[in-house]
Structure formats: C-alpha cells, structure tokens
Amino acid sequence: RKPKNFPPGPKWWPFLGCAPQIANLQKRTNHLVFTTAELAKTYGNVLGLKVGTQVLVVVNGIAANKEFLLSDDLSGRPLGEFYDKRTWGKRRGILLVDELFWQEQRRFFLKQLREFGFGTRNMSTLIEEEAQELIAYICKFTALNDSSVFNIQNLFNLHILNSLWKMLAGVRYDAEDKKMRELQAILNELFRAVGATFSHFPILKYLAPEKSGYNVYVRSHNCLWRFLRKELAHHKETHVPDSPRDVIDVYLNVLKSSEESGKSFSEDQLVATCMDMFMAGSETTSNTLSFGFLYLILNPDVQRKAQEEIDRVVGRTRCPSLNDRPNMPYLECVVMESLRMFAGRAFTVPHRAIRDTYLCGYRIPKDVLVIANLYGCMLEKESGYKNPEAFEPERFLSNGKISLPDNFIPFGLGKHRCLGESMARANVFLFLAALLQKFDFGIVPEQPPTAEWADGITPGPKPFKARITPRKYTDNF
Ligand code: HEM
C-alpha cells in the first residue's frame, strides 16, 4: 500500500507495482528518462513509483532536484539488492554500498584527485600520454587496414580505463594485453548485470538466479574483486613508502600510519572503492566523449571553430595540456555541451532516505530510494535552455567568458556530487583537444550517423561510424 501523503504516481498492482504501466509507456517513448518525464506531466515533478517490490521516487526538474540533492535526509545510498553475502558481504565502497565509512573515504579520494601527482606525472601528463596512444592507434589502424573508417563508440573505452587504472595502480595496458581484455570483459558483464531484472525483483535472486541475471552479477563482481586484489598484492610486494607511485601506494601508506589505523581504512575498503571508481568513471567518461564526437560530426562548423582555437592557442605540434584550458573557452564549452548531451539523458545514482522526511511537501519514508532524472534539468523543452536539443557551445559563452546556468548539473549537487569531476573534465578536454588537433572527423556517406541514442546503465549514442583523416591545412599557419 502507498504510504500516506506519498508522492503521486500510477496505480500499484500487487507484486508488479507500476512496472506494466512504465513498460508500456517506455515502448512509446523509447527511453526511461522520457517515460518518467512524461509521467511527471500527469503526476507532478516528484513521482512515487513501485517497480516490482522496489518503492522508488523519481524527481524531475531543477527546483525539485535541488531540494532533493541538497537534502541531508536523502543522502543515504541503497542498502539492498547488491549488498548480499555472495557479493559485497562486509565490503564497503562509496557508490553503491552505504555511508558508514563513506565520508572518510570520499575525503581521501577527493584529496588524491585534487593534489594528483606522482614523480614527474600529474593528471595532465597522464591523460596527455593516453590521448597520444589513441592517436598512434588511429594512425596504425589506418595504415594497416587502408581505411579511415572507425567505430566511434568503442574508441575511447580502453584509453579511459587506462587513465583510471594509471591513477589508481600506476600501470597501463595495450589493447591486445590479456589483462586489459580481461578487465574490459569483466566490466562489460558487470555493467549489464547491474541493470538486470533481479535488481527490480530481488526475490528472483532465489527463484531464478540464472535467468534474472543475478548469477552473472555475482560472477562478474567477484572476478573484478579478485582482479583488484591481485593488483593490491603486487603493490604490497613492491611498495616503497617514501616514493608512492599511485593512489594505491598512498592508501597503503595510510594503512601503515598509526594515526589512521582503526578508522575506516582497510584493504577491503580500498578494493571496494577502486571498484566504484571503475563503475562510476569509465562508461560515463567514454560515453560523454562519444556524444561529443557524434555532435562534432553532425555540426562541422562547431568542429572547425574548436580546431581554430586549438591552432591559435596550442599550435600544431605541441601536445595540448590542462594549462591551455583557461585560454580555450570555446573548447571548454564543447566539453560542457558534451556533458549536457550525456547527463541530460541520465539518472543520478540512487539515494536513500536515512530517516522519515519530506520532499516538496510529500512524505518520503525511511529507506525509500530517490533518484534524479537530469533530463528535465538540461535537455527538456521546459529546462530553460534555448533550443535544448541543439549542440551549441556558444550558449555557455558571454563576452568570451564561460557562464554556466544554475541548472547545469551533470555531476549532481551536494554531498554526493561526483567525486571524479576534475578527472572526467580533464579527460574529455584533453582527448577532444589532442584528437581535433590532428584529425578531421567526418561522416561516412554510406552510413551517416543520427542523433539516436540507447539507454544502458549510462546513456550512449547508438553505434556509429566516422571517417577520421589527418587534418589538411589550407593556411600558412
Ligand atoms: C563524464 C563523466 C562523469 C559524470 C557525468 C559523472 C556524474 C556523476 C553523478 C551525476 C554522480 C551522482 C551524484 C549523486 O548521486 O547525487 C556521480 C557520483 C560519483 N562519481 Fe561521477 N561522473 C563522471 C565521472 C566520474 C569519474 C571519472 C569518477 C572517478 C574517478 C567518478 C566517481 C564518482 C563517485 C565515486 C561517485 C559517488 C560519490 C559519492 O557518493 O560521494 N565519476 N558522478
């Protein structure tokens, strides 16, 4: 039964909740963010839903989402479906598993990302190297296959994964490397499994563990756990406290220091948080880049303007670095538009009410999950953006300066605001800059891309191809 004064929404049927109505509407709208935005038109911006046995509140529009994301009472993380003996057990992360240790761990990783630097490598050099690896791959592929046609949506995965892995564990892998292929396969499987039916109908874990996707989830979760544990064991063997090579080494130093012992730091916690970083940081960044390049191909004038800025500020031979960022407002705005196109089609990670509370006047009982639909904030007609579906970096520029509206919230807001924002923005900026400096991205006439996209754990463009060719310069730069 619906709790009293619970947010309005479609009728709840026994066992199924309002899953049938949602599934029907989704067939028509094609996307879950559209479905809940459409329901919000009937029931209001705070929607009370039940999917299977899971009671869920979905929040639309910037005003309601600000109240939600800034509420302390709604700042828990889900406890349920993914947190059981066969997987997480007593392990805790930051993202999916709950907040007992969240604050200290979050502080540690935020500090690492802010002050990032090991030996001569800082965040910029680490990502620059990875972008140059991708450039080398594109040149090699073109020469070997005598073809300049590339599948764009898979192009960045390996390199984004490598940038995360280099930060955490100090190593990178080539595409052909067995370990990298293993890591990618495990992550793909885990991503698919997180959205499987057992997450909406937990009882299926016991009734139909194979069919509901639960067994796959357990298997891939535990594979990733073992993979990271192995890396940790290797780090412990080769660890030199005075010269940390990466975030894992710094964490090991904390574990050794008596000051911190007894607090939330532990080897299991480290592995759990590394897992969160992969889950939260890999597909999000790769898909933002895919959206960015999709729209640059569909809008060649934007691509040309970005290239003109790169030529003027960086030139044609030096690698673009994060130091160039203040002088490249146009490319920064291309980054912002790419983020808007990605996050405007996404939900945030679910939150949980840590006590009985109210949101926009409705009652939210303790432990109910609440999730933000960012579509209404950044892409819907009513979002306040002029022509929101168009890719127009200029919308963020005013007299040559960047000005972001209040409802630009691709990284969320408040206590749980994305931990990896600095790294994500650096990755998107440097990959765009390095690739546009060297190549033109064009349509393959026989297979022109469309702006269509697909739902997933995170949204991404439908598979599309582009012709990537070395830039032709017509001026005397
Ligand atoms: C374009 C890329 C990215 C986007 C759009 C993005 C967006 C977000 C959003 C919307 C949230 C949820 C906020 C909430 O629940 O209220 C989040 C949380 C999080 N993100 Fe990101 N993210 C990106 C990349 C990254 C990267 C690269 C990392 C890791 C290096 C990362 C690590 C995290 C973590 C650990 C959390 C949970 C924070 C917490 O609960 O305290 N993200 N992100």
UniProtKB/TrEMBL annotation:
CC annotations in GO: endoplasmic reticulum membrane
Top-level taxon of origin: Eukaryota
GO biological process assignments: organic acid metabolic process; xenobiotic metabolic process
InterPro entries given in the database record: Cyt_P450, Cyt_P450_CS, Cyt_P450_E_grp-I, Cyt_P450_sf, Cytochrome_P450_fam2
Keywords from the UniProt entry: Endoplasmic reticulum, Heme, Iron, Membrane, Metal-binding, Microsome, Monooxygenase, Oxidoreductase, Signal
One family name in Pfam for this protein: p450
UniProt binding sites for heme: 418
Single GO MF descriptor: oxidoreductase activity, acting on paired donors, with incorporation or reduction of molecular oxygen, reduced flavin or flavoprotein as one donor, and incorporation of one atom of oxygen
Protein name: Cytochrome P450
Family: Belongs to the cytochrome P450 family.
Topology term for the membrane: Peripheral membrane protein
Gene3D superfamilies: Cytochrome P450
Organism taxonomic ancestry: Eukaryota, Metazoa, Ecdysozoa, Arthropoda, Hexapoda
Cofactor(s) listed in the protein's UniProt record: heme
Function, in words: May be involved in the metabolism of insect hormones and in the breakdown of synthetic insecticides.
Compartment(s) where it occurs, according to its Swiss-Prot or TrEMBL record: Endoplasmic reticulum membrane; Microsome membrane
Organism annotation: Phyllotreta striolata (Striped flea beetle)
